[in-house]
Amino acid sequence: MARYTGPKTRIARKFGEAIFGPDKVLSKKNYPPGQHGNSRKRKTSEYGIQLREKQKAKYTYGVLEKQFRNLFEKASRAKGITGEILLQLLESRLDNVVYRLGIAPTRAAARQLVSHRHITVDGQVVNIPSYSVKAGQIVGVREKSKSLEVIADALAGFNHSKYPWIEWDQNSMSGKLLHLPERADIPENIKEQLIVELYSK
Q1: What is the spatial distance between Cα 65 and Cα 71, in angstroms, rounded to a whole number?
Q2: What domains, with CATH codes, occur in the chain?
Q3: If you ran DSSP here, which 8-state letter would residue 75 be given?
Q4: 174-177/138-141 β-pairing
Q5: Class of residue 135 by CB neighbours under 10 A (exposed 0-12, middle 13-18, buried 19+)
Q6: In this predicted model, what pLDDT tens digit does every residue of 40-76 receive, in sequence order?
Q7: Which of 56, 63, 110, 162 is the most exposed place for a label (fewest CB within 10 A)?
């Protein structure tokens, strides 16, 4: 399946935020990419603002358009606030949970660990990054993969207490999804209401 593999700093500069993690270039060039990026002062339309927010969410979570629309439709059918449910569905993706547990330094690295069969859910190897983790399920590192340097480096000094909806057990190198996160507990700077407005047109 197609996945964005181009320069990540370029995308981060487009949104003016380090959506892929710490970015040295972005801190020096905090303006849109391109020849006129530093001088462009065009007013963005309402549609443009909504589209930009959707694109930011897609790039942040590494989801393609069809997957994103399917998640939105699932969120719109559920009871509750559609935008908040959409973010909860994105947060409960297996690759995102692996990232939140500190097993991988980025979502892209987490996706790779899942695809390469290093991650288990309730003791069974799952290699589908978009797998939806349910409350009460345990996500861990496969026994044979616990000595991987990339995992050890990611976990070193990681603060697991910053996400109250997951519980980490260092001994078993696994974490439990206690419940879906509240909106206030999701740190991403995404205005989900704009995405709802965009799809509601």
Answers
A1: 10
A2: 8-89+189-199 (1.10.1050.10), 93-179 (3.10.290.10)
A3: H
A4: antiparallel
A5: exposed
A6: 566 778 998 999 999 999 999 999 999 999 999 999 9
A7: 162
